[in-house]
Design a protein that fits this description.
This protein is of the alpha/beta class and about 325 residues long. The chain folds into two domains: about 110 residues, NAD(P)-binding Rossmann-like Domain (Rossmann fold, 3-Layer(aba) Sandwich); about 180 residues, NAD(P)-binding Rossmann-like Domain (Rossmann fold). About 30% of the residues lie in helices and about 15% in strands. The chain contains eleven helices and twelve strands. The chain has a seven-stranded parallel beta sheet with strand order 8-7-6-9-10-11-12. A five-stranded parallel beta sheet has the order 2-1-3-4-5, covered by helices on one side. It starts with a strand and ends in a 14-residue tail after the last helix. Pfam families: 2-Hacid_dh (PF00389), 2-Hacid_dh_C (PF02826). Belongs to the D-isomer specific 2-hydroxyacid dehydrogenase family. One of its GO terms (molecular function) is oxidoreductase activity, acting on the CH-OH group of donors, NAD or NADP as acceptor. Keywords: NAD, Oxidoreductase.
Length: about 325
């Protein structure tokens, strides 16, 4: 029987050819994640992407599924326990987002230090005005929660601005680009040193609502919070309280506990908050990068039976 790869995302002809070349003996079929063909998926050994309503088919006892390559870095929406129990290999798209998301992080930081967010509002009102409170990134300290691909790229670029970079990670192991790295249990101590607290963490049982009232109270007076990780890692009410009190000077937010952010949510009306609609990782190079990860993994899978890059540890949920 022919072995099957089903991709639930759009691919160019070039991307399809690259996958076929890397997977001799396999057929590649393009599906639709929004309207998946269950009969097609029932024959799949490898699935690229994910979609609603496909779990029962892929996790049935008859399913030949052995490996899922997600189209995203986060995997919290997948049936992880059932996948682990069935022995399905899971790889994510970690690393795809590093460059575009880092650009958004620095976009937020530069907006705040140079007051560009208020300049845009003034332009709309044809108002020639500056508070004279502009600053710069040189000499500032960035506390970066998460030292993975996004955190590391952010730290690397921060060094070009001659910033101090402090990392926070589960292991606390040294990482390139960081002056110091601390374990997660030191987060409350470390944030007091930061002019910017940057959250790049995935959503897990450990990180859910990690950034709450205690963390924000420990932050340096007048510092800024940036979240491009997952919305549910943050207690939104505690964040708004810290912003309204003036303890935090501002926030750059790409992710939210509820998405889309409701039209009547008070965050929309806060002038010290800059909002982007969960698009920090969007780039015209996204598909190329995921396909690159998949091809590397496919070669390893054919050789050893296990993909080599971005293999998710079910116990850690990333």
């Amino acid at each position: 029987m022919t072995k099957s790869i089903v991709c639930l995302q759009k691919l160019s002809h070039r991307q399809q050819d690259l996958i076929r070349d890397a997977a001799p003996g396999y057929t590649l079929t393009l599906g639709d994640g929004k309207a998946p063909d269950l009969a097609q998926l029932a024959e799949a050994e490898i699935v690229i992407g994910w979609g609603k309503g496909i779990s029962d088919t892929l996790l049935s006892s008859e399913s030949p599924l052995r490996w899922v390559q997600t189209w995203s870095a986060g995997v919290e929406k997948l049936p992880l326990t059932a996948m682990e129990n069935k022995g399905i290999l899971l790889t994510n798209a970690s690393g795809v987002h590093a460059e575009p998301i880092t650009a958004v992080i620095f976009g937020f930081m530069l907006l705040f230090t140079r007051n560009l967010h208020t300049a845009v509002r003034n332009q709309l009102n044809r108002k020639w005005h500056s508070e004279g409170s502009e600053s710069e990134l040189t000499g500032k300290t960035a506390v970066i929660a998460g030292t993975g691909s996004i955190g590391s790229e952010t730290a690397r670029i921060a060094k070009a601005f001659r910033m101090t970079t402090l990392g926070v990670s589960r292991s606390g192991e040294p990482a390139e680009g960081f002056d110091e790295v601390y374990t997660t249990d030191r987060l409350q101590d470390v944030v007091s040193q930061g002019d910017f607290l940057i959250n790049t963490l995935p959503l897990t049982d450990e990180t859910r609502l990690m950034f709450g009232a205690e963390i924000f109270a420990a932050c340096k007076q007048g510092s800024y919070y940036i979240n491009i990780g997952r919305g549910a890692t943050t207690d939104t009410q505690a964040l708004m309280d810290a912003l309204n009190s003036g303890h935090l000077a501002g926030a750059g937010l790409d992710v939210f506990g509820t998405e889309p952010l409701p039209e009547d949510h008070p965050l929309w009306g806060m002038e010290q908050v800059v909002i982007t609609p969960h698009c920090a990782g969007v780039t015209d190079r996204y598909a190329d990068r995921v396909v690159e990860i998949f091809i590397e993994n496919m070669k390893s899978y054919l050789k050893s039976g296990t993909p080599s890059r971005n293999l998710v540890d079910y116990s850690r949920q990333y």
